[in-house]
Amino acid sequence: MTQRSYWTAVWCGFLVLTIGLGVRQSFGIFLKPISAELNVGRELFSFGTALSMLLMGVIAPFSGRLADRFGSAPTIAGGGAVYVLGMIVTATMHDGFMLILGNLLVGIGLSAATFGPVLGVILRVAPPAKQALAVGICSAGGSFGQFFIVPLAAVLQNYFGDWRPTMWALTILALIMIVLPLGLNDRKEIAASKRGSGGSQTTGAALSEAFAQRSFVLLVIGYFVCGFHVAFVGGHLPAYISDKGIGLSLFGVNLSPAELGGWAIGMVGLFNIAGAILWSSMGNRFKRKNLLSTLYLLRSLVFLGFVIAPLSAASVLIFAAALGFLWLGTVPLTTSLVGYIFGPVHVTMLNGIVFMGHQIGSFFGGWGGGRLFDLQGNYDMMWWISIALGLVSAALHYPIVEERLSRPAAMPQPA
Fold first, then answer.
1. Beta strands, E only, 207-294
2. Cβ count within 10 A of residue 304
3. Key word Membrane present in the record (predicted)?
4. Which of 101, 178, 180, 181 has its CA 20 to 30 A from that of 375?
């Protein structure tokens, strides 16, 4: 793998994550207008987006297996096409059924065009000494999408005064995801890794081996918390700010509460660009499992500070910046840790299983926020649940054993 082609994969992966996750994170902007148009509570919209994230996780191991077997480029391109179809259904929907269907298609598409398959390419093509930096830069694409696309969606929504033109604009942007996988071809590296391992480990054997390791199970459970946090904040923070009527007027610039919510999510993405790169680079010098424990503990402290501080535009932006620094630093650390322990042959599939834990958490974080709001009329309980879960995840990551898994040498195959 040449230096040039290695960086091509990094930047194509960066853009896939920028568009796919950025557009998906912008759905929180549409929570209130779509719920109002359908004349339902927030639970239906929240359930649709949460179901999308759950399906994204359930299918991720199968998408990972396809990428490990046939290559990441066709897998990611196919996922991008299904994603766009889901966006079209959502943009044209007029009832709850189409809302759910559109979200399901987006979830299926993202299962093949998100962190697992994209970072699997980077772990295969990047030189070992550059993997941490490459994974960190590529992971930051999801954060850049939040910083650029979510505020853009908020501005377009305010400009058009209607969610449909904004959804169509995002759909057109998503079309680019179908072309970008041309720079994510890793078939040669997959073949080489299989030859290097003797090609002896089957899919079933890899799964049995992984689930026999307590560390793998702890990673799956701990990643649940990351998904819960990301879905709750990404899906409900704009509505929370709008409910509280917190806008911003500074140096002649006026932001409505709805626009401030979009910019808050954008701030999370902006600060996570630096956070993802920094956390992943620290993974070369410190044990990744200890860094993950520290990160989740800090998240709980940031949530606690936001809950007890007086709510204002300043507290919203400070919260967004602090949380952003901790937002997706979990991704390069968790992904590279799985690759380090189990090796490259089945890394995309195994990361898909860990990611499924993340997306189960996303389901409960996204749907639970809407459910509790409809029941209680506020998000108070969700903030305290988020604090408690962060502490639990910090405790779960600490006992993980961060060592390469040793395997007996493969026996020669009979002629």
1. 248-250, 253-255
2. 16
3. yes
4. 101
- Helix (H) or strand (E) holding 259, with range, is helix 257-282
Whole-angstrom Cα distance, residue 350 to residue 333? 14
pLDDT above 90 for 197 = no
SS3 250: strand
Handedness of CA 214, 216, 221, 225 (dihedral sign): positive
Measured in whole angstroms, the distance separating CA 7 from the mean position of its chain's CA atoms is: 22
User: Whole-angstrom Cα distance, residue 52 to residue 111?
Assistant: 10
pTM as predicted: 0.77
Judge whether residue 308 has pLDDT over 60.
yes
More confident residue, 267 or 392: 392
Altogether, the residues listed in the chain come to a count of 415
Q: What are the Cα distances from residue 170, in Å, to 22, 91, 149, 282?
A: 10, 10, 8, 35
Residue where the block lists tokens 């480990």: 201
Return d(Cα 337, Cα 340) in angstroms, integer: 5
| Nearest-angstrom CA–CA distance, 354 and 114 | 13
CB 235 within 8 A of CB 31: yes
Greater model confidence, 218 or 313: 218
Distance between terminal CA atoms of the chain? 32
Distance, in Å, from the CA atom of 208 to the CA atom of 191, rounded to the nearest integer, reads 22
Provide the b/e sequence for 134-159 (b: ≥16 CB within 10 Å).
Answer: bbbbbbbbbbbbbbbbbbbbbbbbee
Which residues contact residue 191 at a Cβ distance below 8 angstroms, ignoring those fewer than 6 apart? none
Q: Is the pLDDT of residue 129 over 80?
A: no
User: 223-226: long-range contacts (C-beta < 8 A, 24 or more apart)?
Assistant: 223/330, 223/334, 223/354, 223/355, 223/357, 223/358, 223/361, 224/357, 224/358, 224/360, 224/361, 224/393, 225/296, 225/361, 225/389, 225/390, 225/392, 225/393, 226/296, 226/330, 226/334, 226/358, 226/361, 226/393
